[in-house]
Amino acid sequence: MRRSRFGELEEQVVLALLRLDGESYAVPVAEELERLTGRDVSPATAYMVMRRLESQGLVTSRVGTPDPDRGGRPRRFYRVDTEAVLPILRRSRNAMLALWDGLEPLLDG
Amino acid sequence: MSWSGQRPPLPLRIAVRLLPEEVREEVLGDLLEKWHREVRDRGVVPRAFWLARQPLVALRLRAWDGGSEKRRRNVHSTAKAGLPVSWIDVKLGLRMLGKQPTLTLVAGFALVLGIPVGLYPAHMTRVWVQSLPVDEGERIRVIRYRDLEGGDFRQPSLEDLERWLEALGSFESLAAATVGASYNIVSPDGQSAPVHGAEVTASVFDILRTAPLLGRTLIAADEIAGAPAVAVIGYDLWRSRFASDAEVVGRPVQVGGVAHTIVGVMPEGFRYPYRDDLWLPLRMGGFVDAPGGWEGAHHLVFGRLVDGVAPDQAELELVTLHQALAAEAPASHARLQPEVAPFAAGIFDAPADGFVSDPEFYAMQLLFVLVLVVACTNVGMLTLARTAMRSSELAVRTALGAGRGRIVSQLFVESLVLAVLAAGLGLLLGDQVVLPWMGWLLDQGPAWLDFGVQPETVVWAISLSVLSAAVVGMVPALKATGKSVHRNIQRASAGRSGIRFGGLSSALLVTDVALAVGIVGLAGFLWREVGENMSRGSDIPAEEFLFAELAVPRIVTPEGATELDQTEFMARLGDTQRELVRRLRGEPGVRGVAVGSSVIGMRAGAAIELDQGPGGGNRRWALTANVDADFMAALGQPILMGRGFALSDAGEDGSAVIVNSSFVEQVLGGGYPIGRRLRYVPQPELEPGPWYEIVGVVDDIGMNGSQPGADRGFYRAAAPGEIHPVQLAIRLTGDPVSFTPRLREIASEVDPAAMIRDTRRLDQVVRRNRMVWISSLGGLGFVLLVLVVLSAAGIYALMSFTVTERTKEIGIRVALGAGSGTIARTVASRAVAQLVLGVFLGMPFAAMAFNQSGDIFQMSLSGVLPSALIMGGSVMLVIALLACTGPTLRALRIAPDEALRQE
Predict the structure, then answer these.
(1) B625 vs B839, which has greater pLDDT?
(2) Which chain A residues are closer than 8 Å to B4 by Cβ?
């Protein structure tokens, strides 16, 4: 069954993936989240979130080449299925904007 | 820095173990990459935090992961069904730790020591079967034979290897290598020194998936007989002997007196298969069938399993192939069974499952867990007393509706919190202190061997924590909550616990004292041994001597290895020794050269038999060494009785031996030694050797450097060619160590393939051996003493509690006119009876422990048994009586009116 909305971390991971040209692996995704949100995300967390998104058909994955920095282990690259995720992201963004509508002055005060 | 030759940090390995199996490798890759960046970009503290956080992150992910939803539901339903454990209990447990710091400290100390001790056998079985820390190292497996009749392991032959190369489909590729060899290398600056090296098939580098740092690895063409002699060198050798020369590839190097061309340099950390720094092509034509045929070397056959093939499947294929081989050559193969084993198991000749199917392993594991149980029992006694003090709290909780299970689980969780924290600290100490120390003791073992804590060790530690918590917390809790609600409340209101220390506590106390008697005796004896070792020394000015060992290879030539037989080998070694010693004696600054198969600080034992006379007839164990005729004079050792060796004593027909003072005392019972005869008795079923006559006596000069108390031994005069190994003690006028390069130069001139190994100042050799011995005994003694202190604490807790419980009774007795003596007798009589019973029951246990220790440490303890038992018994009685004194004095101070007001 296709999802109608994301969890907070899932949404942030999908957005980070989109910012990284739509395809990346766990380490840059975790670092992008840390850089932009200040949230300390482990690569293991990013990996598990993307794996779960893959099981729901929202991202696809491929295996890269082995790397000595990783003890000879390959990277798993995840690519966002934009067709599948954009409606969910749009809905989420609209909901947030609707909720914020008229409340901006609170932030200034 | 590359992670391909290194084991990932422990927290990362634990973290991935907590995740589903199918994602572990990829997540570990991500974590390693991130860790690499952390090491590069961040300070020690932030990156340590990052590392420590990963197992917790993984634990949360495990709960979050979609697949675990069902598990989570199950956990919830279990909790509702009957495991009333909550986070509040954990918080309460943590609070209790702070509330009773003394108990926390004592109990924590016991568990910090006890849990790692209990883990030790299980942990070591994992060490002996670990995989190589290379890419997918768990797929690299050794192939070997098990001898079905003898039970020991054998290395395969060349024919077997060739057949497997053709027919075996379970392995991607196979390789063969020598293990434990060393070669004399002459570097460009003219310096010669031995390095650890291996002759390997070219496939080794593919199997280990490691590319060279410079040049190339060995290739199949190098293995062909007659091909140019080439060598690949290791990173450390390249740095130390070739000054990190970037143009080293193509340069010549002398290896064992034969010119080789360096074709490659391997990266840092590549020391496989053992601790090697040099790789020569294994010429298949020279592959020796007989295992262990070469000097200090044997061949190891290993390969990389095809992806997806389990070791069991590979073994099944091997066994099937072997049936045909056994039918063709029944004489050599019918009694052999091929098996596939982890790499370390192949190196150490350990069973493929790491001893877990060995009954002796379970016996040993049980023994180590018993140590933990003893520690926990004592902590349990302390906890029992504490639980009793809380009986009013427990009674009120019961009255408010808490079931027995709820209260027991709360007390259990409180102990579990302590046990888990203690296990964590114990593992940390083990990982950072004890296990590296063990690695240091085995400094000649494989360079890649990791003694560190494995994820499995953590799982076992958690299991033992649960066991400890059960003993420490649950048993007292069950006892404390055993009474009916009504009685508990009644007793609590009277200020009493409701706990009676009847049969259980008596049994605990008696067992405790019995164990402690043996332990005190043994600990005292071990400490005495340590003390003696510290103070005892030899009269030889060891700091003036350079120690070295001379070795020659069985032979290596570029055309393929030709093995010398034993006679040829010993003749070559003898010729080299004779010429080397002749040259050394002519060197300026050399004051003397002693040559022996075992000089000061080395150990070699033999079973001997004496002729009739005091101490005669029986087989005895003594140290022995073949030495040259000048040995005593070169060491400056005077002959105390009889005569020294003459040149005519050396050789096969020579029958003269010189014994040391300890031999005269311990073997001959102090009788007159000159003229007495002795002979070797290798095994009862074999013919004894020829008789030797004692011609002289020297003082103990430290034949057994680690254990001077067991120094009894004798020296036989031997000619060059009869001494093996050849150990040298060269007395010099200046700094002995600075003579090392000259010694190597001379040895190289005498025989280019000769190796001078283990060069150290003689006193350092002795010191190191003693340190190993002393630290082993000291460590054991420390653990034993801790157990004794815990026993004392346990006894004190019981006694103290008994007095508290009997306050009112004592008050009434005092009011009725009982004197101090009567009160003291009333309080202490039962405890003293238990202590005395424990001391006497402890004697047989102590005798058994002593016999076991005697076997382990190769010393006879029968002579010291009575005194050790008396010491152990006395010390325990004193400790126990002291433990009784405080509570008894407290009982004597009880005022009758105050005691009666308690009602």
Answers:
(1) B625
(2) 68, 71-72
B502-561 pLDDT, tens digit per residue, is 566 667 667 777 777 766 666 666 666 666 655 555 667 888 899 898 888 765 554 444
Chain A partners within 8 Å of B62 (Cβ) = none
Residues of chain A contacting B32 with CB distance shorter than 8 Å: 69-71, 73
Whether A65 contacts chain B with CB within 8 A:
no
Q: Give the residue from B361, B368, B367, B370 showing the smallest Cα distance to B471.
A: B370
Q: Is the pLDDT of residue B81 over 50?
A: no
Token representation of residue B222: 């190098």
Q: Which of B701, B873, B741, B890 is nearest to B804 (CA)?
A: B890
Q: Say whether B239 sits in a helix, a strand or coil.
A: helix
On whether the CB atoms of residues B176 and B299 are closer than 8 A, the answer is: yes
CB B114 within 8 A of CB B369: no
CB atoms within 10 A of CB B877: 17
Chain A and chain B share a number of CB contacts under 8 A equal to: 89
pLDDT in tens, B616-649: 556 777 888 889 988 988 988 889 999 989 888 8
Whole-number Å distance between alpha carbons of B612 and B876:
45
* Lookup: tokens for B59: 């634990």
- CA-CA distances (angstroms) from residue B531 to B309, B771, B781? 56, 12, 12
- What's at B198, amino acid-wise? A
Pairing assessment for the beta strands B230-233 and B153-154 based on DSSP bridges: unpaired
- Across B187-277, the runs of DSSP E, i.e. the strands, are 192-200, 214-215, 230-233, 252-255, 258-265
Three-state DSSP class for B495?
A: coil
pLDDT average, residue stretch B701-726:
76
Q: What's phi and psi for B370, nearest 5 deg?
A: -60, -40
pLDDT 10s digits, B203-212: 999 999 989 9
Instruction: Yes or no: say if B335 and B322 are a contact pair by the CB < 8 Å rule.
Output: no
Strands B639-642 and B298-305: unpaired
Q: Which of B308-312, B682-686, B841-845 has the lowest mean pLDDT?
A: B682-686
Nearest CA in chain A to B136: A72
CB B797 within 8 A of CB B381: yes
Residue A13 has pLDDT above 90, yes or no: yes
- One-letter amino acid at B525 equals F
**H or E segment to which residue B642 belongs:** strand B639-642
What SS3 class is residue B17?
Answer: helix
Please give the residue of chain B at the shortest CA–CA distance from A64.
B26
Q: Is the ipTM of this complex over 0.90?
A: yes
With an 8 Å Cβ cutoff, are A73 and B25 in contact?
yes
